[in-house]
Structures are given as structure tokens and as C-alpha cells.
Amino acid sequence: MTPPQAWLRDPPPPPFDLTALTGRVVVVAAHPDDETLGVGGLMHAAHRAGGRLELVVATDGEAAFPGLDGPGRAALAAARRRELDDALDELGLGEVAVHRLGMPDSALDADELAAALEPLLRGADAVLAPWTGDPHPDHAAAGHAAAAAAPVTATGWAYPIWTWAWLRPDDPAVPWRHARTHRLDDDSRAAKRRALARFPSQTGPGPGGEPPIVGPEVLAHFDTGAETVFRAPRAASAPRERFDELYTGGDGDPWDTRTSWYERRKRAVLLACLPRERYRHGAEPACGTGALTPALAARCDRLDVSDFSEAAVAAARAAGVAAVRAALPDAAALPGGLDLAVVSEVLYYLDDATLVATVDRLAEAVDPGGDVVVAHWRGWPADAPRDAGATHRVLLEDPRFTPLVSHVDEGFLLHVLRRA
């Protein structure tokens, strides 16, 4: 068994930002006690910070001791339900809604669970679920189900459980790049200790004298004063319908591209970073409202402008931009013979395969010696498969492109690369 001290890292993962859990937060657990073990302190802190928490428990954990007969399993299920209620009281979460699905313990089906979760996760701002790589099949199934059922607008977080005891920190499956650590204050740490003590069916001997499921060596992993979670990225590209909805709502400018200081400053920096005063043929896929387009057009003899959202194209045309509808990596979005391609605030929305195909298309469409500009917000949109840093690394590590300009600040990343 891996000891807790083996997991200490220098430097530690970045701190978890509690503002990510101030809306409607749904915590998914495979068994009663998973949530308390993995994120009990985080739930306690999020609730105090104003998060509206709900808990979904897939099973009653009746199969924790496989030797039990039918009545014994029923009694254990009832005990674990009571234990969870008591633990939530200790965490100050006694009024939190608990959805008990009663699915078979040790036989969770991810597809069936996803179907049950879909209406419960609808409208959630954040979802916390077991990590899909956790070495317990029910935990992995719960993680996959939550990822499949969560709305595109929800930020996903994954919490490990048996990972700490059964895996090792150098296991390549552990996604350290996505890790964030929450430090429990004294109040949260004490509340979590009290809550864990409310699970005697798991922390004490079994009904037949079996060793505890969660014995002292395992419990030590959950009494370190810290909880680590992983950002759970979407696997699929952000859907077009999501952007159509954004561009047709409100004033048709969901990111305030025409007025916000972030957007105005980013455009000014981008234009200042262009190595050449004038380009022969440029392309601006994902033009959005077309706020950048006029300034780019003034630097290009020809500029092809597009977006994959019909609503965005309509917004750009309403602003006088001759945009067409085209999705990356289509040639209509990146025609051949370019000496400039400006790809801003879009690549992190693409799934891995589409991003690779888009980078390949950039290499084909941009002539040798031409420039590629990529710029992205340094946050991580809920509906994006990756953040700005991971997105830019794909191009920076591609030998077909040579970095010329690197701009990194608290708001955005911007790189200019020359086609080799």
C-alpha cells in the first residue's frame, strides 16, 4: 500500500479556486462515504462559500462484504444510508438534497447511471465525480457516467479515492497537469474527521469479523489536511448549438468583444505582434462578431473570414464583415496559399482529433515563411477539452512551426509562429 507521504509533491499542485463551486454543485458518489473520503472538506468549504450542493449516490454499498446473504446485504445498505445522513450532518450539509439511486453495488453500469444522472445534472454549474482512472470499477463507472451526463456548461472535477492507496504518484495515468489541491482549514478538517467517524460499517470490523474496508492505513490518506482533485476535461468538441445559443441571446455579443478591456487589449497586442506590416492573403477562422476583422483586413490584401456558428456569422455580417460559415479544419476556413492565419479563442474548444487535423491543415494552408497567430484566454472554459497552455503546446512542439513571438500575461496567451 502506498503511504500518504509518497504523494507529497514539490511544488504541490496549484490551489483549488473555491469560486468554481459557488453555483449549483452536484457531487456524484458510487457508494455512501466516497464523497466524504474524497471531497468532504471541499464540500464543507464550498457550502460555507455559498455553493448550492446536491449529492447523488449511485448505490447503497450493500456489497462491501461479498459473503453477506440477502438479509445481511439489506441491513448493510440501511446502515450505510444512515451513516451517510449522519456524516452530512457533521459536515454541516444536513439539508443538502441527496438523490439515492439504489443501483447494484459492485456492478455499476456506466450507461445506465448516465441515463439516471442526466436529469439530475441538468442546470449544474459544476460536477464533482470519482476519477475515471480510480482503481475501483464502480468509481470509474461513476466518473464516466457523470462525464457523459453533465451539461456542456458544467465544469467537471474528478476526485480520486482508492488511487491514493493502490497507485503510485509516478503512475503515468495520474493527470498531474489537471490537479488542484484544496487545503482544509481547521474547521473543515475537524468536520471531515467527525464525518468519517460516522461510517463504522466501513472503518470498523465487518459483520463477520472481516478487516475494515477503510482501515487506519487507508484513512491516513484522507487526514492529511488536503484534498486533491483533477479537472475533468470534455472529450468532445464544444457543440455548434452551444455557440448558436450564445450568439442569439442578449445583445449577440456573449463575450463583449466590442467593449471589454480584455478584448480590446488582446486585439491591440495581437496586432502589435504581427511581424509584418502587410500580408498578401490572410484567414481568420472563428471570427465571432468580427470585432478583430477590420483591423486585420487593413493589413491584408485579401482576408477570408469565417465561423462555424451560423449565429456568429450573422452577427459578423450585421457588423459589416463578409463572413462565411465554415468549420475547422475545413479548407473553406483555412484556404491554401495563406501567409497569415489568425486563430483566436477557438482551438481549445476542439477535441483532440479535430485539433490535430486543424494543425495539419494550418501546415498545409500556410505557405513556408507565413505566420500563424494563436491567442486564447488563460482560463479553462467549461465546454473546452483543454486549457490555453495545453492547446498552445501542440503547436509550439510541432517542428513545422517556429516560434517568433511569445506573450504571456494573467489574461491570455499569444504566440506567433512561422511556417518552417
UniProtKB/TrEMBL annotation:
Q: Which GO terms describe its biological process?
A: glycoside metabolic process; oligosaccharide biosynthetic process
Q: What InterPro entries would the database entry show?
A: GlcNAc_PI_deacetylase-related, LmbE-like_dom_sf, SAM-dependent_MTases_sf, SAM-MeTfrase_NodS-like
Q: A Pfam family for this UniProt protein?
A: NodS
Protein origin, superkingdom: Bacteria
- GO MF term set: hydrolase activity, acting on carbon-nitrogen (but not peptide) bonds, in linear amides; S-adenosylmethionine-dependent methyltransferase activity
What species is this protein from? Pseudonocardia hydrocarbonoxydans
State the name under which the record lists this protein: Methyltransferase domain-containing protein
Q: Which UniProt keywords apply?
A: Zinc
